[in-house]
Amino acid sequence: MGSARLQVVRDDVHERAAARRRIPADGSDPQRVRLADAALSCIARQGIAKTTLDDVARAAGCSRATVYRVFPGGKDGLMSAVVDTEVARFFSALALRMGAASDLEDVLVAGMNEAAVRITGHPGLSFLLEHEPEVILPHLAFSHMDDVLEVSSTFTAPFLGRWLDHDEAKRVAQWAARIVLSHLLCPADGVDLTDEDRVRRLVRTFVLPADGSETHETTRSTATTATVRSGGVEGIDRPSRSTRAIKGEAS
Amino acid sequence: MDGEPRQRILEATYACVARWGLSKTTVEDAAREAGLSRATVYRYFPGGRDELVDAVVSWQYLEFFGRLYEEVHGATSLEEVLERGLLFARRQVLEHEVLQKVLQTEPDVLLPKLTVESNRTVRLISGFLVPYLQEHGLPDGLAVHEAADFLARMILSYISAPGRWDLSDPAEVRTLVRVELLPGVVKETQIVDK
Predict the structure, then answer these.
(1) Which of A22, A92, A218, B182 has its CA 20 to 30 A from that of B120?
(2) Computed from CA positions of residues A83, A88, A94, A98, in that sequence, does the dihedral angle turn out positive or negative?
(3) Would you call B150 an interface residue with chain A, using a CB distance cutoff of 8 Å?
């Protein structure tokens, strides 16, 4: 994750709209990104199955031969580029919001809210979820969802690292990702995660009472605070330290 | 195979799905397996193949949660419900041969159907948890349905994808319940170990 990419996204925020479509968000050449964006506009209109390379060429204002030159693998390669580009933009947007947060509550609210806004507002994704769910849903369940949780928590955990130790940050990041995914795939009555205030209530109600942060130590059993900044030495990525904390062995 | 025809057809279709998968199972196959005529199958499932396959998924889904209910309904505390339920459900997922096979070969067919079912299941699980939560006592300002809904969707999520938690290990399940499920929904003092 280079700072160059973050810089690119900061520019994006200032320039907005039109310029945004030209940004090499996946770090590759502008031509690739331009075609990926053209493909995305087709997908948002007619889905993946019906989108042809001709459609993409037309949307990008170039020839079919150009599309093949950039993507010798044809449609599959182009679709991978769309995914790469959109995933990079998604995480860049998360980084931007989460990086500006000033406490643990804010960083969680920022990340969860931004994720929900980006996902529900994403033109391609919303078309696919409605019309070609079979393309999307397998990636968000069972072992593939484990992968999604792992990738997203690996990316977002460092932003929680200012307030939580390594292991707790990873755990809470994954938990937050799980909560967002669950609400997006199976919306709950009255819980709209694109509403920042609603996310804040969710975070305060369910997530913060269980985290190991110093901010909340006064409201928690003393044992839990032992998980904070105890260093990520042994058992990294296992919830074992939390076990001890919750069982009260550390006190 | 005895029993009423509808059930008999579902069981026969399930056997076909186990052998050939969701997409390749036909009304013809199901009828032959059940020892009934195609016309009889259509009488119970006028929508034909699609309705039949949907019905089999729904039926197996309910069976799954029926077994889960059997496992936890005698539990005396919220902790016990959650711990026993997660352990049992995750094992069921891993040991369910037909589910695992279809997840490997036809996730694109299965997942949209499961997603529809899971919306219903959140309400089922949530309803089951309400009395346990009421007995436990909730933190001030938290409505019981809100707490139950949150627990229900988290449970479904962990059953499908446990992430970093090893749900075959009772100690980890216990930790998960105490770290990510209970703290928000019960009064704080109650989660401290006896």
Answers:
(1) B182
(2) positive
(3) yes
Nearest to A5 by CA among A194, A155, A172, A164: A155
Whether the pLDDT of residue B191 is over 80: the answer is no
Structure tokens at B1: 């195979």
d(CA B78, CA A143): 28
For the record, the structure tokens of B10 come out as: 């579902």
- Considering the domain B57-188, what is its CATH architecture? Orthogonal Bundle (1.10)
Between A143, A185, A210, which is nearest B180 by CB?
A210
The pTM for the full model equals 0.83
Complex prediction ipTM? 0.92
Say if the Cβ atoms of A146 and B163 lie within 8 Å: yes
The distance in angstroms from the start CA to the end CA of chain B is 51
CATH architecture classification, B1-46: Orthogonal Bundle (1.10)
Helix, strand, coil % in chain A, rounded to nearest 5: 75, 0, 25
Residue B192 has pLDDT above 60, yes or no: no
- Residue A172's identity, in one-letter code, is V
Q: Domain residue spans in chain B?
A: 1-46, 57-188
Model pLDDT for residues B147-181, shown as the tens digit of each residue: 999 999 999 999 999 999 999 999 999 999 999 99
Query: Hey, are the CB atoms on B178 and A170 less than 8 Å from each other?
Result: no
CA distance A153 to A148: 8
Structure-token pair, residue B70: 């059997």
Q: What's the burial of A74, exposed, middle or buried (CB within 10 Å: 0-12/13-18/19+)?
A: exposed
B162 in contact with chain A, both atoms CB, cutoff 8 A? yes
